[in-house]
Amino acid sequence: MIGARLLQQGKHSSNRHCLTQWHPEDPAFWRAQGERIARRNLYISIPALLLAFAVWMVWSVVVAKLPQVGFAYSTDRLFWLAALPGLSGATFRIFYSFMVPIFGGRLWTTLSTASLLIPAFGIGYAVRSPETPYIIFLVLALLCGFGGGNFASSMSNISFFFPKAQKGNALALNAGLGNLGVSVMQFAVPLIITAGVFGALGGAGQKTADGGQVWLQNAGFVWVPFIIASSLLAWFGMNDIADAKASFAEQAVIFQRKHNWLMCWLYTGTFGSFIGLSAGLPLLAKQQFPQVDVLQFVFLGPLVGALSRAGTGWVSDKWGGARLTFWVFVMMMLGVLGVMYFIQAASWWGFLGAFIFMFFMTGVGNASTFQMIPNIMRQEVLRLMPDLAPDAALKQAEKESAAMVGFTSAIAAYGAFFIPKSFGSAIAATGSPMAALWGFLIFYASCAALTWFVYTRRGGLLHDIERGVDLAIP
Question: Phi/psi zone of residue 178: left (φ > 0), alpha (ψ -120 to 50 degrees), beta?
Answer without folding.
Answer: alpha
